[in-house]
Write the structure tokens for this entry.
Amino acid sequence: MLTIQQLRVLLAIRDQGSLSRAAAELRYGVPTVAHHLDALEGHLGARLVERTPRGTVLTPLGELFAREAQHILRRVEQAERMVARQREAGVATLRVGTFASFGARFLPAAIDRLRAAFPIAVEISEAEPTRLVHLVEDGEVDAALIYDFADDPLFGGGGLRLTRLLDEPFRVMVASHGPLAAQEMLDLRDLRTVAWVSSRSDDEASGRTIRRACRSAGYEPRELMRTDDLAMIHGLVAQGLGIALATEIAVDPRFDVALRPAVQDLGFRRILFATRPGPLLPAVERLRAILQELISEAAAR
């Protein structure tokens, strides 16, 4: 049976010009080198090495086979390095959950940097935070990017390890060319008749914030539509059909919308890096650090 050691012995004999020098190069004994050479020639049924007064040289068949063996060993070494680096990463495929707006802005660059450090595959799942939390807890993803409302947190039980990446203040999204955009600050008491576009889920942070803020202004918010489709939200607001609650990261610049602060306290949401408790895989730790770096770089610009 052909072995990697046999290929290395043949190349060492070619490069060193003798069995003894090949043995010294490989840190083998001469009998071991001779054994591997004999086994290789027996496997191929061909003479690969000739002894001459000036040393040991490869036959034409030996030279031909040595060139192919060199390519094989290079590929084996590449594969060994890849396995070693994946072992250092702790995983061959990293599974990451995210929500749309943050994922679109930061995750592609983070994955590029991560794969420069670890040659691993990355699988991404997109969902709302409540779903992502369950995926983390069930081990379906290794880490997830979620958000939560700082003053009314939904997450944070013992089943999660949460690292805060970013605090984002909530603003009111309005049509860029509408009358509300002309105001530097909005008063929700003046928006009783304006309809909101909100999330389908009652547990979603922006929906909870809208209800809390409007109730503090003395009324229940009117709803134009409930949807989690960001393009739909932007389109409705851009046409002046309603308003929405958003953060800077969530704004799609392709739509004619603007963000305005409110007199009332709208609070802010926290972007969190969620994992299971306990030691983290090296690739997960590196991804978290990369995301923190990217956020710091974006803030400095």
